[in-house]
Amino acid sequence: MAQLTAVLASTHHPFYYKATTSPLEERPPFAAEWRRKVEAYRETLTAARPDVLVMVGADHFHQFFLDNYPQFLIGRAERYDATFYNEEREFGLPKYVLDGDVELSRYLHEGLLDRDFDFSFSHELKLDHSIICPIITVRPEADLPVVPIYTNIFAPPLPSPKRFWQVGRAIREVIDAYPSDLRVAAIGTGHLSLELGGPRQFGEHGPDPEFDRNAIEWLATGNIDAILENVTHESMAGAGNATHGFMDLLLMMGIAGDGVQADYVDELDLFHTREMYMTWYPNGAPA
């Protein structure tokens, strides 16, 4: 059977690439520390020696909008174009073409349907920075096939936090049952407290540092009970108007397992947001 060698959950910050590759005189003062933390985090994936990446993100109204936004979707393409024009223009992100793994996509899709998770699918999915940011940070070679999974964290009504957790648990079941010797890594990105376009966007820290501290603790300790007791759509909106991306991090905790402690945790308090980097090794730390 396939082996799930690593589960990675992190925030995604589209300005990381520009902040750490611009001429030195144009970089922000925190760029060097940011880069050191990301490169250390990258090693947690490298050590797991994956053959394929199952990647969880969300479309930022590039391909889907309020009139047609699937709750959960899996890509089933042979390859994926990535990076939209505004992401090139605003963030300086490069374009990519990523190979897909059609057979693993098919198996995951059918396995999730069998477990009563009614995923949409796409043969023509284009990927945005929720997938490309972690490619840049943890696999900049972009040399592994991907299976992209998109969730709805933007267009109400949203699935519940509990549903995101359940989807993560189901994805884990299907990966563990995949009749292959592939080494699979699951990588997902989301948000802690985050404000986009609102009055708290440009604060010295993220809009709700207390939420951030609690969220990192809950994720790192696998405390699903505390999350489901304290995290609702309303509480996330109170922490910042884009905080619902936390549910993608919750999904990744579901893939890692029930009550499982993270093997690697790091964070960085940046201007207007807190970055988080977390890794679990479900089958034991790499030798």
TrEMBL record:
SUPFAM superfamilies: LigB-like. The lineage of its organism: Bacteria, Bacillati, Actinomycetota, Actinomycetes, Micrococcales. Gene3D superfamilies: LigB-like (3.40.830.10). This is Extradiol ring-cleavage dioxygenase class III enzyme subunit B domain-containing protein. Residues 9-258 form the Extradiol ring-cleavage dioxygenase class III enzyme subunit B domain.
